[in-house]
Specification:
Elements lengths: L1 H4 L8 H15 L2 H9 L6 H23 L5 E3 L3 H13 L1 H21 L1 H8 L2 H23 L2 E3 L7 E3 L5 H18 L5 H16 L27 H4 L4 H26 L11 H18 L4 E3 L3 H6 L5 H13 L4 H4 L4 H16 L10 H16 L3 H18 L8 H16 L1
Helix pairs in contact: 2-15, 3-4, 4-13, 4-15, 5-6, 6-12, 6-13, 8-17, 8-18, 8-19, 9-10, 9-17, 10-17, 12-13, 12-19, 18-19, 19-20
Length: 431
């Protein structure tokens, strides 16, 4: 173990790595319950999705640890799962959506192997990358509020949504959940989101009138069968999906992963003197394999989690941290019956809180420069209003070169952005 993970060289030990692995797991384990609730809205079997979510997270996180010797963890990405469910699967079917995820993973793999990711990263404006993160944050928070019944459809013609009945049990429980998680986050409690979901579920037994489990042992049991979704991706149907949707899967996954790797790598002191992360291509390779493997298993895009920072903060410095986190995901397979006790109103607050964390990227956008602010704003606002991450990205790519050209600053626009703008125009014309 010492020889493989180079513990002494990285100034750590087994005990520290185990604690770090447990900490990372606690901070991201909420995805075990949140992801099935989101994907089941497409008609996918909820229990099967939970099993697929756990397997994809466990296998890919261990792969990351063994391949790169970095303490990074992976699972189905928040935001991307909402895009999968509410933008793609609702229109083309979840089988086609899985096919689209697999294809995006193949593209990601090619970009990682060829090293083209670095070129694309330098070409795409930083303001648009940050706008995408912020827009996704608002988008998934909006979905969370809808799932909770806090925001509902407006029956008045000309108006789309309105505030729901906050005194009814469902919205009331969700509000309690938001408050609980917010308090835990403010107090910097490890695993705040997971703990909040579980506490909200317990409160729900009283607020919603659900019966308490007669035997606590009933929350443990064998994993749900993955058969209903395993290898059910439809590649032929996926090829009929507009190319920009596939691009959106790739775009969000690539830049979300790149940002997470550099951010967490900086926190751990992994970056070299030029600010680059050694073995970054291997990390990207593990991420792309996770995306393809997740699609085969039956879950949405797998990506590197920023919650890895929690384990790094506890001293995790090697792939052993990731291996521990991955093994804990496998152990979580045996709490599958617990998922049936957790209502949507208990997981909806997690979407709102994660939205808060993601929208923070907006503060790094230069709103004093209108040529940067305008495209970024359009990207952010179109995602929730058009209910599509892809449309928000497309609008941003069209607006950016246009406003730069008008301002006489065309030299600031990389030629690839013009290409992406043209693709975006085609996307709107034909889709």
């Amino acid at each position: 173990m010492e020889k493989f993970f180079k513990l002494q060289e990285n100034k750590t030990n087994v005990r520290t790595e185990v604690i770090a692995g447990v900490t990372t797991f606690m901070t991201m384990a909420y995805i075990i319950f949140v992801n099935p609730n989101i994907l089941s809205a497409t008609g996918m079997d909820k229990g099967a999705v939970m099993t697929a979510t756990i397997l994809a997270a466990g296998l890919t996180t261990i792969l990351m640890g063994l391949l790169t010797n970095y303490p990074f963890a992976l699972a189905s990405g928040m935001g991307l799962n909402a895009f999968f469910a509410f933008t793609v699967a609702m229109r083309f079917g979840w089988q086609a959506a899985l096919g689209a995820v697999f294809i995006s993973g193949v593209v990601f793999l090619i970009l990682a192997v060829t090293g083209a990711i670095g070129f694309i990263d330098r070409a795409v404006p930083t303001s648009l990358k940050r706008a995408v993160a912020a827009g996704i944050g608002i988008f998934i928070a909006f979905i969370g509020l809808q799932n909770a019944g806090i925001i509902v459809e407006n029956e008045v013609p000309g108006l789309t949504v309105k505030l729901g009945d906050l005194t009814s049990p469902g919205p009331l429980l969700a509000i309690i959940g938001i408050v609980i998680i917010a308090i835990l986050m403010a107090r910097k409690v490890r695993g705040a989101i997971l703990i909040g979901i579980l506490l909200t579920t317990i409160v729900g037994f009283f607020v919603m009138g659900n019966p308490l489990p007669a035997d606590l042992g009933s929350i443990f049991g064998k994993p749900e069968s993955i058969a209903p979704i395993l290898l059910k991706l439809d590649l032929k149907a996926a090829l009929s999906i507009p190319i920009f949707i596939i691009f959106s899967f790739v775009f969000v996954d690539v830049f979300d992963t790149m940002g997470t790797l550099l951010g967490t790598g900086a926190r751990a002191g992994f970056l070299d003197e030029k600010g680059n992360l050694p073995r970054v291509n291997k990390a990207m390779l593990a991420d792309s394999i996770g995306t393809m493997g997740g699609a085969l298993l039956g879950t949405s895009t797998v990506t590197t989690y920023v919650e890895s920072t929690a384990g790094i903060s506890e001293g995790g410095r090697t792939g052993l941290t990731s291996v521990v986190t991955g093994l804990l995901f496998f152990l979580a397979l045996f709490i599958a019956p617990l998922a049936g006790l957790i209502p949507a109103e208990a997981t909806a607050p997690a979407l709102v809180i994660v939205g808060v964390l993601m929208v923070g990227a907006v503060v790094k956008i230069d709103f004093e420069d209108f040529t940067e602010a305008f495209p970024a704003f359009l990207t952010i606002i179109f995602m929730p209003l058009a209910f599509s991450i892809a449309d928000g990205i497309a609008v941003g790519f069209i607006a950016y070169p246009i406003v730069k050209l008008i301002a006489g600053r065309s030299k600031e626009v990389h030629w690839l952005v013009y290409v992406l703008a043209a693709v975006s125009v085609v996307h709107f014309i034909f889709y």
